[in-house]
Design brief:
Blueprint: E1 20-23, H1 28-39, E2 44-47, H2 54-60, E3 64-66, E4 79-82, H3 91-99, E5 102-105, H4 106-114, E6 118-123, H5 128-141, E7 147-154, E8 159-162, E9 168-172, E10 187-190, H6 198-201, H7 204-216, E11 223-227, H8 231-242, E12 247-251, E13 258-266, E14 269-276, E15 279-286, H9 291-306, H10 311-319, E16 329-334, E17 337-342, H11 347-361, E18 366-371, H12 375-380, H13 382-389, E19 394-397, H14 413-419, E20 427-429, H15 435-443, E21 449-454, H16 462-473
Parallel strand pairs: 1-2, 1-4, 2-3, 4-5, 6-9, 6-10, 7-9, 10-11, 11-12, 12-13, 17-21, 18-19, 18-21, 19-20
Antiparallel strand pairs: 7-8, 13-14, 14-15, 16-17
Amino acid sequence: MNTAQFTPAGTLTAEDLGRIHLIGVGGVGMSGLARLFLTRGLPVSGSELRDWPSLAGLRALGGTIHSRHEVSNLDGVDTVVYSSAIPQDHLEMVEARRRGLRVLHRSEALAAAMTGRRTVAVAGTHGKTTTTSMVTMVLQQAGVDPSFVIGGEISEVGSGAHHGTGEHFVVEADESDRSFLIYRPYVSVITNIEADHLNTYGDLATLEAAFAEFARLTDPDGFIVTCADDPGGRRLAETLRAEGRRVHTYGEAPDADLRLSDIVSSAQGVRYLAEVDGRSLGEIRLPVPGRHMGLNSASAVLTAYLLGLPVEAAEAALGAFPGVRRRFERKGVADGVLVYDEYAYHPTSMTLALQTLREVAGDGRVIVVFQPYRLYRTRDLQAEIAAALDIADELVLLEVFGPGELRQPGEGSAALVEAVSLPAERKVFVDSWDDAPVEVVRRARPGDVVVTMGAPPISLMGDQLLDALTARSGDAAAVGPDGSAATAG
């Protein structure tokens, strides 16, 4: 996508947008933006064909949600907001332009909401949703009440957006369509840079150049945070430092500005020792497992430290970090089988998640129900995705979720399942959604861990799996993540 399609952040504010209508308001990113506008007291409507769980909350805040896409939805509207998933010939897009309404990409509307705030923008190939959530909770613990928009919902908080009273605005910056280049951050956090979204960038070098451009947009009075353990992040830090920019790094590398050591990860969580510029910050503990979670949290600790916030606030916030929905989210237990949901679809994040699930499973098996996200990614990274799936004991594979993409001969999950090296009896491709729970019931045993993983729709399957396993056992109800009866969605 050409960056010329986006207007750089300027003086436009959220209040300038008038009555706002969001096309496809049920998606995580769009619903979060709608929630931000509603909590800011702005009139909001949206259209959505699927009854996503987030829509009830938007209605409760006063939003008008239309269950059909039609031109009458735009009556009385001043500004129409769309995401990159909405085609330019969508009937509401066409009508908005015919009426001469202001039409903004989601990132442009978000940039308007950030006007006048000190923005902390978190970017990266993976880990940015969790990291954005951690930064947000640390700032909240420090009492600065930031505004935030995250590409996921903080578990137990039940929200991915909030209009705060403080000067900071924490945002997840999306590189997939280059839209992160319209932001003007005070702080830029870049978790990692790996090959992805090559339909937009073509190759890794072009992607790395875009991240460098994003970092250069950082306010001269602010700073940039990158990961010293990530090759792409390290190259970026070296480039920016040579240009005289203020860059700080974190990681296990000996030369990291914030250095992690003695990392221990188990099913109970992860902990590590942290020091910055030779000063010990003590032990950081998180109740969620995974070394990668520890690494993500280090960027939040470093950001807070550089902003002059108490390290104790970071320790307290991370010690109570509840996780993010769809990021290693525990859905419940049924018939002795533990069910998780995980958004990972890039091979690196898949590998990290599955290695952590192995810690959780202990002597049990790991069964993956995977829905690949985008045909181009599944094609270009097929070998890497297959290698990640090889970590599983059993695999149930659904067809690729790729709205708007045209499938070419030999593309899709039928080819991917052949590339996975698991024995034939331990892997299966199902072309029907309803066949997946049947396969899980047939394969899962007490003590196993099942994870639904991949594209957004697969998040809806966890409750179905719990229901199916409960029916198999004859119990009255599954046990939810807090130990109470699980409720199917």
